[in-house]
Structure prediction request, 239 residues.
Amino acid sequence: MELLEYRNVAKYFGGLRAIEEVSFTVQEGEIVGLIGPNGAGKTTLFAMASGFHTTSRGEVWFAGKRIDGHPPPAICRLGLARTFQIVRPFGDMSVLDNVMVGAFLRHPDRERAREQAAAVLERVGLGDRLEQPARTLTLAGRKRLEVAKALATQPRLLLLDEVMAGLTPVETTGMIELIRAIRRDGTTVLLVEHNMHAVMQLCDRAVVIQHGRKICDADPATVAADPHVIAAYLGEDED
Prediction:
């Protein structure tokens, strides 16, 4: 089943073309990587799906409903949640209270939201940090907290924006295992990632964006051998 579909979407910021006629789908149960050089338009595609940017042209569909132009809270209620590349937790609030903010979407009762948030934090490996101020977490901890905040909304589709950026090899391995567990629990994943080793390990498919256009959509091994993809990466700086 097609869970997310971009239909010929385009996005312009004044005279700047960020995205031009991009189409692809994410099937329910997949882990799909959205990759490409810096400035290719990957985060803009995330923003259009999650309601933070409108499309200039084209349509975005989620779970059989057209969602482009809907505000972020409405899209989140439908079951699409995202993380952000730059993690900014509520630093003086506890780790638990940070995640309760997301849990309130489905559980307006405070005690039920607290139970849900605690369960999510256990799931992401922060179960022993509930009362710790969020600002005291390491980068790896803040990345996991960012994932937990999104998971607390109980999404069908989770958009992960560079959740492995800046992590050590051991921390990256742990995040890969977490994303696999999220998929096993029934959540579909679309991720922006520059760590090609992680993409090769994790993803069923990779969609490659260059200069706002899709240049490849295939399994990771095919993508890695594609001459257009190789030229795109060799010709531009990566993160």
Notes: The beta strands are 2-13, 16-27, 31-35, 57-62, 65-66, 80-82, 157-161, 188-192, 205-210, 213-218. The first strand starts at residue 2 and ends at 13.
